[in-house]
Amino acid sequence: MSTILIIEQMLNGLQSGVMLFLMAAGLTLIFGVMGLINLAHGSLYMVGAFAAAAVAGLTGSFVLALMAALVAAALAGAVIEILVIRRLYDSDHLDQVLATFALILIFSEGTRWVFGSFPLFLDIPDALSGPVTLPGGIEYPLYRLALIVAGLLVGVGLWVLIERTRLGIQIRAGENDREMIAALGVDISKLYTLVFALGAALAGLAGALVGAIQSVQVGMGEPVLILAFVVIVIGGIGSIKGAFIGALLVGLTDTLVGIFLPELLKLFMDAAPATSAGSAIASMSIYILMSLVLIWRPSGLFGARA
Amino acid sequence: MTDTVLRTIGICKSFGALQASKDISIDLRPGEIHAIIGPNGAGKSTLIAQICGALKPDAGRVELLGKDITALSTDQRARAGLGRTFQISALAMEDTVLENAVLGALGARGRPWRFWASALGDKDLRHRAEAALERVGLAEARAKRCADLSHGQRRQLEVAVALTLEPKAFVMDEPMAGLGAAGSKDLTGFLDQLRQQAPILLVEHDMDAVFALADRISVLVYGEVIATGSVDQIRTDPRVRDAYLGESA
Amino acid sequence: MSRETLFNAALLLGLLLVPIWALLTDEPFTITLATRAVILALAAAGLNIALGIGGLVSLGHAVFFGIGGYAMGILAHHAQGFTPLMEWPFVIEGTKSMPVIWLLAIVVSALAALVIGLLSLRTTGAYFIMITLAFGQMFYYFAISWSAYGGEDGMSIYVRNDFPGLNTLAPIQFYGLCLALLVVVLVFSARLRRAPFGLSLNAARQVPARLEAVGLDPMRLKLVAFVISGAITGLAGALFADLNRFVSPTMFSWQFSGEIMVLVILGGVGRLFGPVAGAVTFVALEHVLGGLTEFWHIYLGLILLGVVLFARGGITGLIAGREASHD
C-alpha cells in the first residue's frame, strides 16, 4: 500500500468530512439557538441538490446552480419555519421529531411528484473537472479539492459571522438565554427564522456541491442527516467547533476504515472473507467511534456537561 | 457517634471561582429539628444537593448513622434511610395521590421488579401509603390526580411520600414554600410531632416556622456556617445580625 | 365503562369480526391487510412501553424489528436449504418452527436492546433520539454488507413456518395466531402499567428526581423497559417476515423506525390500545390513499402534522377525551 493511496484516501475523508460539517453546523446551530431537533434538515439538503440540478439543466451554469441551491433551500427553510417549525419550539422533542418526520414525507413525495423517481445528474463545471497534480506527484480530482476548499471557506465565514458580527452576538446570546435577548429588544421570531434559513442554506449548499459527484435523487438527504447526527453527538450538541472536529473525525474514519480494514484483515485471513468481514465492520466503524465517545464523554467532545 | 444521625464533615464544593460550600460540618441529632437558614445564594441548595447525593463534594464526607455515604448515589442514600422533600413539588402529576404515595412505599421496599400483580392491590404497599396519607391529612384526597391538588395539598403529599420510606432522617427543602399562614401553621404543628419519629434537617425561609420549630439553627452565609446554636443564641449572635441586617441596620 | 374502554372493545371486536367476514365473503386480501395491521400494532405496542410509559423517544426501534425478521430469515433459510447454521463447536440446524424462531427473535432483540440501551441511556433528550437513530443505521448498513444472507437484496423464504396444530398457510389461521400474540402482549402491557414496575417507570418519565429520592434508580427502570420494548418489537419482526416470506435490510431502515413511532402517535401515545388504533388507521390509509395516488405519503405527512400540532391525544384522544383513564 503506497503513501499516495493513503494521502488520496485522507483527502477523500477530508472532503466528505467537510461536507458533513456543512450539514452538522446548521443542525447544531438550530439546536443550540432554538432547542429544536430537525429531522427535515436532510430534505433541505435534497432541495438544494434538486434546485441546482434543475437550474444547471436549464442554464448550463454551475454558478447559477449553486445560487439557486442556496436560495431554494433558504426559502424552503424560511417557509417551513414560519408555517410549522415555530410552533414546535416550546414542544417536547417527541413532537419535534414527529412534525419534522412528517415534513420529510411531504418533501420527499413532493419532490418525487415534481421530478419523478429517476435520479437527476448535475455535472461538474468544466473549469473544475479533471485531475490536478499535487506536490509529490499525487493526482487528485480538482473538483473534490475545490469542495474541501469551499467547505473550509464556509467554515471560516461561519466563524466570522458568529464571533465577529452583530447577528453572531445575537445568536450566541440566544443560545444562552432567550428571555435576555428578547429583553434587549431583538425580534426573536425574526432571528429564529433567519437562523433556520441560514442552516437550511448551508444544507442546500452541501446538497448541491455533493450532488455533482453523486446522483441527485429523492431520499439522498437522510443518510447524510443521520451521519450529521453522529457528528453532533460526537462533537457535542450546540457546538460549532464540535461539529467541525466531529465531522472530520467521522469523514476520515468512514473513508479510511472502509479502505484499510479489509487490507489489514487480509494479512490474517483469506482474501474473500477478509473483504466481506472488513466491509461489514467498516460499515459500523463510525457508530463504534460514536459509542466510544459516549462512554468516555456522554455529552460529546465539546458539549456542555450535563 | 451514636448521638448524631446525619452529619457532614468538612464538605467543600466550588463551581469555578465560586466557593459554594466552605468546609461545612453540621450534624443532626436524634429527635431534633436542625434548621439551616441564610440569605439567598448562601449555598443552602448546594448543601442539600451534596447531602442527598445530587452533587458530589470536592472534599469532605457525609455520614448517615455513622456510615460514610459520600460515594452513594441519590437512590442508594434514600434506601439507606434519607427521606427528602423538594422545594418545588416533585410529584407524578398525571398520577393519583395514592399512586404517588405507593411509589414511596415501593421505594422503601426497594423492589420495583414486578410486572404482573397490581401495585395498588398489594396490601402491604397500600397500607403503608394510606397510613402516610392519613398522617398528613390527605386520606380523603387519595383518588385525586396530583395535577388537581391545591398547592398546599401538594406540599402535604411531598411530606407523605417521604413518610412512606420510614426514613432515619428527613431532609426538607423549604416545605413551607408558598403555603398561606394557616397552611404554614398546620405543617408546623405536624413537623413538631414528626421529629419524634426521625430528626429533620430543615431548610426554610419562613422564620416564624423556624423559630417555632428548631432545636438548633445553623446560619449559612457565602457558603460558610457562621454560627450554630439554639434559637436564642442565634437571635442574639452579632455575626448573624450583621449578616442578615448588615448594611440596613 | 369509560369511552376509552368502549372504543378499545370496539377495536378488538373489529379485529375479530372483519377477518371472519372476509373469510365468508372470500376476500383473502382483506385478511392479509388485517394481519399486517395486527403485526404493526404489535411492533408499536412494543415501542409504546418504552415511549408511552417510559418517555424514551427511541427512533431506532426498527433495529429490533429487523433482528426479529432476520432471526426468522436465517433460521428458515438454513432449514429450507438443509444446511446447518453452525457446525462448530456444535451443530445447530435451521428450523421452521415458529415457537423456536419467536424465542430466538425475542432473546436476540432483548440482548441488542440491552447493549443499545446501556449506551443510549447515558444520555437524554435530543442525544437519545439521535443515538438510537444512529444505531438503527448501523444495523441497516451491517445487514446490507452481510452478503451471506442476501446483502442488499434480502432473502426470500419459500414456505411459511410451522406452528404445532395449525395450518399456517391458511391466511385466517396465521391471522389468528398473530392476533392471539397481540392480545397476549396487550394484556401483559395492561398488567405492567399497574404493576410496581409500570408505576415506577411512569413516575421515572414524569419526575426522575422523585424516583431517586424514594430510593429507585430511574436509569435501571428505563433500561429494563427498553429491553422489554425491544423484545416485543423483535417478535413482531419475526411475524412480519413470515407474513411476507421475505426479509431485507429495509426492515432496519430509519423510515421504518419513524413509521412505528407514527403508529404510536397516530393512535395516542401512552394509551393501551393506541398502537392498535394507530396501526389499523395506518394500514387503512395506506390501502385507501395508496389506491388513489402514488404519492400518498404526502397526505400521511399532512395528517401527521395535524395530529402533532392540533390533536395531541391521537385518535384515541379524539374519540375518548384527552385524559388517560385512571379507573
Automatic annotation (TrEMBL), chain A:
Its main location: membrane. The chain crosses the membrane at residues 20-40, 52-85, 97-122, 142-162, 191-213, 219-237, 244-265, 277-296. GO terms for biological process: amino acid transport. It is found in: Cell membrane. It is a multi-pass membrane protein. PANTHER family: ABC TRANSPORTER ATP-BINDING PROTEIN, BRANCHED-CHAIN AMINO ACID TRANSPORT SYSTEM PERMEASE PROTEIN LIVH. Belongs to the binding-protein-dependent transport system permease family. LivHM subfamily. This is High-affinity branched-chain amino acid transport system permease protein LivH.
TrEMBL record, chain B:
One of its GO terms (molecular function) is ATP hydrolysis activity. It holds the Pfam family ABC_tran. The keyword Isomerase does not apply. GO terms for cellular component: plasma membrane. Its EC number is 3.6.3.-. Residues 6-247 form the ABC transporter domain. The keyword Magnesium does not apply. Keywords: ATP-binding, Hydrolase, Nucleotide-binding, Transport. CDD domains: ABC_Mj1267_LivG_branched. It comes from the Bacteria. This is Lipopolysaccharide export system ATP-binding protein LptB. It comes from Tritonibacter horizontis.
TrEMBL record, chain C:
One of its GO terms (cellular component) is plasma membrane. The keyword Cell membrane applies. Keywords: Cell membrane, Membrane, Transmembrane, Transmembrane helix. Its main location: membrane. One of its GO terms (molecular function) is branched-chain amino acid transmembrane transporter activity. The chain crosses the membrane at residues 38-57, 62-80, 100-119, 126-149, 169-190, 223-240, 260-285, 297-320. It is found in: Cell membrane. It is a multi-pass membrane protein. PANTHER family: ABC TRANSPORTER ATP-BINDING PROTEIN, HIGH-AFFINITY BRANCHED-CHAIN AMINO ACID TRANSPORT SYSTEM PERMEASE. This is Leucine/isoleucine/valine transporter permease subunit. The lineage of its organism: Bacteria, Pseudomonadati, Pseudomonadota, Alphaproteobacteria, Rhodobacterales.
